[in-house]
Each structure stands twice: as structure tokens, then as C-alpha cells.
Here is the input.
Amino acid sequence: MTTESPKRPRLSTQAGKHRRAESGHPWIYANEVVLDAAAKSLKPGSLVSVFEAGGRPLGVASFNPHALVTLRLFDRDPTRAIDEAFFVERLSRALSIRDRLFPEPYYRLVHAEADGLPGLIIDRYGPALVCQLNTAGMAAL
Here is the structure.
């Protein structure tokens, strides 16, 4: 957990609409978020800190006000820095898991939310990697 919160916008879920995210689901839908004028003015792909209506933290997410899946959670700590160290840790963990499971380096290295990297798919074909950036948030990062 970081000691200082990055300066990022705060978004809240509507009252009672936090339960799915609180139980571990990595997505928060448009009809579950308070989409006021300030939220709608945010650039698609912006990183935001997410809280339930009562103020309890839900995490840090990429936000797209134009998508049905409005928030895609990166981490359950709303102060977590989504930076180079974050990506190194997540990619290293994914590589370690795949190296234990597959004898040859031909596999899906990153499977988006399953590896804590929403909107990112990386397939490995030996020395070659093929990447798909499937969200505004991942494209921005």
C-alpha cells in the first residue's frame, strides 16, 4: 500500500451498487456509477480512485464514461500507483505462472483482468509477443 495518494479524480458508486465490485468483480457498469458532469468530463481512459457511496474504498480503475463497463479495476487500493513498477510486478507474476504451466513459450502471457491488467492481452509465440490493447485505459497507459 502506498503512503501517499496520487492526485486522481474520485468516483463513487450509486448507493447499494458496490456489492459486485466489493465481492471481487473487476468491472463496474455505467448504471452503478455516479455519472455527474465532472465524471462525464473526464477523458476516456483516465485513472480514478473508486469509492462506494458511503465512502469506503473500492480501488483504482480506468474510467470510460462512454462504455457500458465504465470502470475496470486495476487494484483494490485506491492509492496504488499505476506506474512502471506496477506493470513490472504484474507482468513478472504472469510470466512466472506461465513458465510453471507450459514447457514451451507458446501461450497467452496476459489475459486482461485475470492477470490484473484490464484491457490487455499478450500472446507469446516463442521470442515474439502480440499485444492487444482493448480499452481506452490500457491504450492511455
Summary: The two ends are 21 Å apart (CA to CA).
